[in-house]
């Protein structure tokens, strides 16, 4: 009964490749997010979708493209991966000011 | 620059002692939340305090908020080895629709 699930948990790939991370939530929340956590544990918002509509798009290279087929899913596609993209990517969902629910993260390693 | 900044960056205490972590932020907020992250896992919500509240308790957790100083503290009383984790503050400010996180305090509780 995982509330927010993301796959894969680990992703190791070479520079220049294209990869996707999937996220699904079964909490009925309208808003979903992608956060990036760097090696110093700093967590930074990347994107936010509300009911399939993009509402936050931080300063992220356009190699990153989120896609929300429905309000329960928010996927992240990354083109032309670079070494600096190595990080842990977290999906989260929420409603209004209520606390966020996070997935367990996808550790992306670009070699 | 980061919105939320936790202090100290790392804290090591003995089981049974109290742990205090501080958070400073920069903009006006609607609420401030504390989250916990165990190694290799996603963030889990601990407690939310609204901008018109000064103190809140939940079990062994006590959170204070001083909006004039733009700071908050999280106190964990009678710590246990299982409290070992990273703790993050996150602010929900008046304009954005996503929480802004700091880089966390890494707490180590020695048994």
Structure description:
Chain A contains no helices and eleven strands. By secondary structure, chain A is mainly β. In chain A, the strands form two sheets. In chain A, strands 2, 4, 5, 6, 9, 10 and 11 form a seven-stranded mixed sheet that branches. Chain A has a four-stranded antiparallel sheet with strand order 1-3-8-7, with no helix packed on it. In chain A, strand 4 and strand 5 (43-50) form a beta hairpin. Chain A is globular. The mean pLDDT of chain A is 93. In chain B, strands 2, 4, 5, 9, 10 and 11 form a six-stranded mixed sheet that branches. The mean pLDDT of chain B is 91. The A-B interface holds A 4, 31, 33, 35, 40-45, 48, 50, 55-56, 90, 92, 97, 99-105 and B 2, 30-31, 33, 35, 37, 40-45, 48, 86, 88, 90, 92, 96-104, 106.
Oligomer: heterodimer
Distance between the termini of chain A: 34 Å
Percent strand of chain B: over 45%
Rg calc of chain A: 13 Å
Identify the notable features of this structure and list them briefly.
heterodimer; A: 111 residues; mainly beta; 7-stranded mixed beta sheet; 4-stranded antiparallel beta sheet; 0% helix; 57% strand; globular; B: 111 residues; 6-stranded mixed beta sheet; 5-stranded antiparallel beta sheet; 58% strand
How do you describe this structure in short?
The complex is a heterodimer of chains A (111) and B (111). Chain A has 111 residues and is mainly beta. Chain A has strands at residues 4-7, 10-13, 19-25, 31-37, 43-50, 53-57, 64-70, 73-78, 87-94, 101-102, 106-110.
């Amino acid at each position: 009964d995982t509330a927010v699930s993301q796959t894969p948990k680990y992703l190791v790939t070479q520079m220049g490749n294209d990869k996707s991370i999937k996220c699904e939530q079964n909490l009925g929340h309208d808003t979903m997010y992608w956060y990036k956590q760097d090696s110093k544990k700093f967590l930074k918002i990347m994107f936010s979708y509300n009911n399939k509509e993009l509402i936050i798009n931080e300063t992220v290279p356009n190699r990153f493209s989120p896609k929300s087929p429905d309000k329960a899913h928010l996927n992240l596609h990354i083109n032309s991966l670079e070494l600096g993209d190595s990080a842990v990517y977290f999906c989260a969902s929420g409603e209004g000011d209520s606390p966020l629910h996070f997935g367990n993260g996808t550790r992306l390693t670009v070699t | 620059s980061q919105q939320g900044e936790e202090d100290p960056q790392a804290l090591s205490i003995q089981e049974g002692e109290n742990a205090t972590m501080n958070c400073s932020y920069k903009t006006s907020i609607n609420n401030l939340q504390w989250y916990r992250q165990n190694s290799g896992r996603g963030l889990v919500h601990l407690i939310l305090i609204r901008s018109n509240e000064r103190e809140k308790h939940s079990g062994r957790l006590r959170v204070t908020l001083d909006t004039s100083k733009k700071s908050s503290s999280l106190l964990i009383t009678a710590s246990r080895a299982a409290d070992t984790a990273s703790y993050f503050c996150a602010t929900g400010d008046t304009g954005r629709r996503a929480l802004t996180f700091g880089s966390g305090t890494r707490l180590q509780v020695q048994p």
